Amino acid sequence: MENPLHIINLSRMVVMGSDIWDSVKSTIEKLGYKNPVVLDDPITRKIVGKKVSDDLNCNHYYISSPTMEQVKSIGDTIKNEKYDIVVSIGGGSVIDVGKLASFKISIPFISYPTVASHDGIASSRASITDGEKKLSIEAQPPIAIIADTKIVSQAPYRFLASGCADLISNYTAVLDWQLAHKLKGEYYSEHAASLSLMSAKVTIDNADVIKEGLEESARKVLKGLISSGVAMSIAGSSRPASGAEHAFSHALDMIAEKPAMHGEQCGVGSIMAMYLHREDKYKTIKEALEKIKAPTTANELGVTDNEIIKALMMAHKIRDRYTILGESGLTERAASKLAKVTGVID
């Protein structure tokens, strides 16, 4: 039996604690790098970015948006200035730009999330806009993660709830992966799938105790998101954490006038995907999201019923990945029925 080469690229260090901005310097020293640069934005600079760059005695650059143009611009600057490691401090945009820009010039990056809204803080995937297209691009996982529970717990609770929803949606992502393995012969890793499912299960089991402003809640979610990122690294793809529910979210990003957060949309997508997989289990997803105070309806997402239906109808076209939606997708009638029976639309 053929054994194809499989490379697992993992983070080397995870530093977790409260108010640990001063650990960045020692982390870089332990990793053996000498010339860091900080990426942040005006908000995260006030929160912790300035403290870090001052402590490192290094330059910083603002990231305005997660675009290919920004990736190229900051990549050229990093290369010309001969920085040897990037420290990305912020939410998805700053981390994704730092992740892809550093990857393109073959240097490592450190992820220092100020919110825990999705698993991109630890994964090798970068969500980047290229023109009108939002792309999910394979890059590299962070060489180290600074998981500051104090900063994450002080962010608006909506971000943490979105991170929980992203984790819970791993359930349907793994079911889609198993389906693709059975029907299409797609590669499947039990280890990666088990780690992803564990992250979802722990989140659901702790739905009652994840609360606003609590560092312990931030710690639980950060651990789950990091574990989810590791699962993707083991799999060599985003399969353990991205199925029909993610395709639905990306479709909604494309068509909705005002899309919600990525994790929030994945949570709602997971309610509907679970109904298609196991009709008797979708309420487990929905009830966990309600406990965490994450959206479960179109109205709570801030999108229209029609946008939900259209996103369901086009989700199967988002990427070449087999899911419960099949190869031909859902008809308008089927999409409308699915959204109504799960309570996503009225």
Please provide the count of β strands.
8
Helical content band:
40-55%
Poorly predicted runs: none
Q: Report how far apart the termini are.
A: 52 Å
Spatial order of strands in the largest sheet? 1-8-5-4-2-3
Binding site for NAD(+): 40, 92-96, 114-117, 123
Subcellular location: Cytoplasm
GO biological process, one term: glycerophospholipid metabolic process
Catalytic activity: sn-glycerol 1-phosphate + NADP(+) = dihydroxyacetone phosphate + NADPH + H(+); sn-glycerol 1-phosphate + NAD(+) = dihydroxyacetone phosphate + NADH + H(+)
Any overview of this molecule?
Pfam families: Fe-ADH_2 (PF13685). The chain is of the alpha/beta class. Helix content is 53%, strand content 12%. The protein has 2 domains: 142 residues, Rossmann fold (3-Layer(aba) Sandwich); 185 residues, Dehydroquinate synthase-like, alpha domain, CATH 1.20.1090. The strands form 2 sheets. A 6-stranded parallel beta sheet has the order 1-8-5-4-2-3, with helices on both faces. It has a two-stranded antiparallel sheet with strand order 6-7. The longest helix has 21 residues. The mean pLDDT is 96.
